[in-house]
Each structure stands twice: as structure tokens, then as C-alpha cells.
Amino acid sequence: MGIFTKLSVKKSDIGLILLIPAFYIISALIHNYYLVQENMAPDLYRVSLGPFLEEAIKGVSVFLCVFAAVGLGHEKLVRVHKKYWLIVAISIGLIVGVGETFIDYSLGIHRLIPTLNHAFGAAIVAGGIWFFIHTNKHKFEGLVVSYVGASILHALWNYHVFIEETTGSEFTLGAISFILTVIASFLIWKFG
Questions:
Q1: How many C-beta neighbours within 10 Å does residue 67 have?
Q2: 3-state helix, strand, coil in the chain (%, to 5)
Q3: Alpha-carbon distance 173 to 166, whole Å?
Q4: What is the pTM of this model?
């Protein structure tokens, strides 16, 4: 019940729903085909600049969806319910994870943890945005810490994948990265 009983989907909301995957696909094409292939080695990009760009894309996507929801008449829901932001963020993270699976990898159970990692990373960034908008103290610091933290955790995960691909085995760094991402996401939404 709760948030879902107050959220009614109108025909005009369908455009908002379609905006998310369209924004991701355009961003993925830009960063995969321009930044990676033209300017940087893929491995260097993946463990350095890529996570910062992806977390920014997820944060902008959350902000655009919430902004569009306000424009569609859901202002009270967005302003009052912190859970709405979390649901939007996790949805965007899942879309990014599934989109990355289809664009860069093959579909399979092995993509479950990376997709969840995207969802929790988006939740961390969205928590920082929510904190920035809804608090009076340390607004900017909360936004920066959540964004940089999510980006560093994402880079740590990507570094784990890089090591696994080059040496053939590496589990610990990936497990630590995923667990820290889940804990950080929980903490920002519980106490933020």
C-alpha cells in the first residue's frame, strides 16, 4: 500500500516512463562509441572516467523523472515521500543495468549482481539529491559525498571486473564493492 495507493498513472505519464530508457540509450551510445573508442583505452575508461559519467547520468535521470513527475501533477508525492525518490532511483539503476547487459554483455544470471549494483548506486546518488533539496545544512557536501562515493564504489566494481578478465579470478574485491554499495545505499536512505 503506502506510496502505490497515492500514485495514479495517467496517459501523460507514459512519456515519462519512455524518457528513461531513451535517455540511457543515447547516453550509452555517446559514452561507448565516442569516449571509449575515440579517446581512451576501454580498460582505462572503465575503471576511471566511466563510473563518474554513469553515476552522473543516473543522477540526472532521477532528477529529470522527479521534475517530470512534478510537472505531471505529482508534486505532493515527490515533496513528501522519500520512498518515491528511492523507487525512481532503483528503477533507473535497474534500467541502466539491463541496458548495459544488452548493449555490452550477454544476458544471463551472471549479470544479476552488476545490475543490482547499478540500482544501489543510483539510490546513493538519488539520496544525495534528495538530501540537497530537502535539508538546510551541509546540502552541497551531502550531494558531493553521495555522488563521489557511488562513483568510487562503481569504479571499485569495474576494477574487480578488469582484474577478473585479465587474470581469470578475483572474487574478494567484487564482493567488498557490492556489500559496501548496499550498506551505503541503506545508510543514506535510513539516516540521510
A1: 12
A2: 85, 0, 15
A3: 14
A4: 0.74
